[in-house]
Structure formats: structure tokens, C-alpha cells
Amino acid sequence: MAGCYFVRQPVMTPIQLQHTTQLLSELLTFKQPADTVVSHYFREHKKLGRQDRHEIAETAFAAIRHYQKIASVLRRPHSQAKKAALAALVLGRSMNISQLSDLLDEEETAFLSQLKARKTEFSQSLHTAAELPEWLIQQLRVHQTDEHILHFGRSIATPAPLDLRVNTLNNKRDKVLTLLQNEGLPVEATPYSPWGIRLRDKTAFHQHPLFLDGTLEVQDEGSQLLALLLHAKRGEIVVDFCAGAGGKTLAIGAMMANKGRIYAFDIAEKRLANLKPRMTRAGLTNIHPERISSETDPRIARLHGKADRVLVDAPCSGLGTLRRNPDLKYRQSPDTIQKLLQQQYHILQAASALVKPQGRLVYATCSILPEENEQQIERFLAEHPDFRVLNSAELLEGLKVPLNTGTYLQLDSAQHHTDGFFAAVLQRK
Q1: Residues designated catalytic
Q2: pTM: predicted TM-score of the whole model, two decimal places
């Protein structure tokens, strides 16, 4: 009987390392969103196979997730991209220097040895231990202890799982969950959303029959909870004021059983164009996408005081999504935050005018900064006494959702395993 031999595959091939180096030289300038840069690179290098793309992308994002450590040992990491890639393999992908020996020259071996020797030093400094830039640490310190900041940093250090939402017009979650489990997929029900299924690995899902027939949509559980809090009912007039590509719009449409009317507003024609095929796939006909020039677009005026429910998922820093978009913390700054605060408030004011008496307004962000969240609501209520806050925990309890974060919905990556979300539910008197 022949013996069995296992041949260890190379950790990363020289070609993969070369491509990772090229990609990082652009990626680590943080001039454009990382996803955009990576997608463009792969379009330019179509001969790369699936495994190649996986290794390159994983290592590139590992470099972003460990950028504080890398930047502390490399001046201008984008100009020393090969060393940055090697550091990412050691720091972010748990490779030993011996495993990488075939890829290293003498200087690079010494560099990685020095990097590993600084492990204790990295753990003792907050910006390298939490992997957060100094500006963000200072921003968070206004409201949080260093212990909380470290906890937050560690909670966003690993990629997010893939959350799916079952389209209740097509099927029930329990049935879909069973179908997926029978296929051998590592799935489980989300703990809070009654529509959610969590996929524990990054299995490509866009060609799955249940996705293609509109039964499943990709949507973070936190985002699903926003649609639940809006609690739109059949036959109502609903406005999704910043609809984007329409993930929440689709969830609201299913919740309304395709009855009533949803206006999906956004300033980006491209994002709204992405919504239309998703509507068709989901079997929804009660959604009306409409591009607006700004929150003051005259076309909005026709809905003043007429909407039963208005959702404002406001443009924000996105700091609650750092598991998915780790580069955001290097593309935001105190100045960009200040501009966003003004924009958020103007949008909230404009959207509130659409709400009819006794109607509901939900203001939400995927940010963790109180300036974008509680403080915006406090300012709004002080200037709009015709609105009052509803208790999110009580609303969710009424919907049989076992989640209590107090008056406001405040989701935390570490505790809730969702993106960081904030939501305030307001009612017009």
C-alpha cells in the first residue's frame, strides 16, 4: 500500500508577493477607498486566478489592519511596499519568518526579526495596540477611557462575517436556514434580526440560486434592525431619504408586503441604478427610486407632512464599519467629520419636514462618535419641540427582538457582532 504524503503549499508565491507589493504601493496612500483600488487592480490583471486574488487581497487588507505597527517601523510604507507586504504576512496572517524564507533576502529577514522583537512595545502603546490613528484616539478620548478604546480597536481587527437577509415575500428564515445547512454551509440564525442568517466564512454568494431568485440579500444584521425600528406597515407612505443602493429600502418593502409606496431618494444616480435590478430580483413593485440634487431639492416638497415613516441613514464617517472598511480611519479626519456634522443636520431637518403628525422618523448612522449620533439628536430636539424620542429598547421588545441598548439603538462590533450602528426613533406629536 502506497504511503500518503502531504506537500506543504507555499505560503505566498513570488508572483503573488509581487502583485501584493504593486497593489500596496497605491493602497497605502489612502487616496481612494481600498475596495475601489483593489477592484481596479484585479480588472487590470485579469489573468490572476481565484487563489491569487484571495492571497493578494487578504494580505493587502492585513497591511491596512496593521498599518499603525507597520508605519512605526517603516517610513512612508507605500514607498516600501514589499516590506509592508511581508510585515502584513507576519502580523496579520500569522506567518513565521521561516515559512517566508524563500521570499526573503538578508535585509528583509533582519527587518522581520526586528518587527517581531517589538511585539511588547506594540502592545504597550495605545495606537499600535488598538490599531487606531492618533486623531481618532484623541476624538474617542473625549467620551471614552483608553480601556474602551482598546476594546473597540480589537473588536474591529478581524474581518466581518457575511450577513444575509431572507426576503419574507419569498420564503421563511427557518426553511432557508435548513436548506443552506443541508448544503454544508457554515450558517446560523442571527441573534436579533428575525430575517437574518450569518455565514461564518466569506463564501462567494452572488451566484447562489437563493440569491439569484431574490430569496436572499446581503445585509448586515444592524442594518436589518434599522428597517425593523422604522416598522413600516402595509399601505403607508414611506421615505428612505438616503437610500444608497437600497439594502434597507428592500427590507422595508418586504416588511410592507409590497403594499403602499416607498420613495427611495439619493443624490447618486449610480447607487440608485444598482437598486433597480435588486427590486426586480426581490419581486418588489412598491419602491420608487428618485435622484435628488440635495436635501433641498424642490421635488421633495410635494411630500411635506405626508409621510408615515421617514428613514434617514445619514452620510457619516463610517467608523462603525471598520471591520469591513479598515482604510476609512485613514481617509477621515477631524475636518471631514466637521463637514459631515453640518451635512447630517441639514439632511435631518429636511427629512423631518416630510413626517406627518404621529408619523415616525428614524435617524441612523454607522458611526460610533457621539458627535454624529446623540449630540445631533439632542440639538434637533432642542430646536424641534414637535418631536419626541421613542424608546428603542421598548420598540424592539414589542417586536420580540431580544436587544436592549437603552433609549437609542447603539450596536457594538465586539458585543453584538454587527457593524457599529446608532439609531434614534422620533415621533411627531
Answers
A1: 366
A2: 0.93
